[in-house]
Amino acid sequence: MDSASKQWQLFLDDFLDDWLGIELPRPKVAMEGFEQEDGCSWCGETLRAFGKCPCSTRRLKWNRVFRLGAYAPPLSTSILQGKYAVWENMLAYLGKHLGLRIRGCVPPNSVIVPVPMPMFRRYLRNIDHTEVIAKHVSKHSGIQIRKALWRRESTPQAAKTASMRKSLANKTMHLRPWPRIKGKNVILIDDVLTTGKTLEIATNHLKSAGVLSVQVAVLAVTEMPQKGKKK
Fold this sequence. Notes:
Oligomer: single chain
Structural class: alpha/beta
CATH topology of the largest domain: Rossmann fold
Number of helices: 8
């Protein structure tokens, strides 16, 4: 799509919204120029031309990471709009592409498990963005969903520093009664992987329920600064 076509579609969207009261969001316009890019299969970060991957010194709980790309515009801004502006069409669009990414690339007997959102936070935001993403990942990958986890109310990870994120307690998340995941290969869905602490806690609980493996599928992975280098 050229620049003139993009500007025309944005103008048309604004006209329909402002003058006719019809909201017609176009995720394709917001995501123009984005290309899906895999990262490291273990930590999800972008592979560097020289030097070791950051995960070479880390002990990761999961078996693999799938992602759409690095946490940078336009992907990052689209995720934020989906979460905080309740742009469900954008979350559906991103979930579709994540579902297509994992389709045919995961073990048999797999199920999708979304990282849960605390009930009160869901009420305040009027959306559970991870559940919406997981729903469309399931639709386009053909893999069933199991809501196996629930989460206690706590400070959102997005409001914390990296060091504060890593101190997240294991007790903030729990298994639901009768999760129905024993003997399954789990695809754990979240929007963004930053320090990985939330996904680590979720993985610990899933393994305690007897799953065979845990693979993480996220929309984006935040690039963490390398030790000894300023960013």
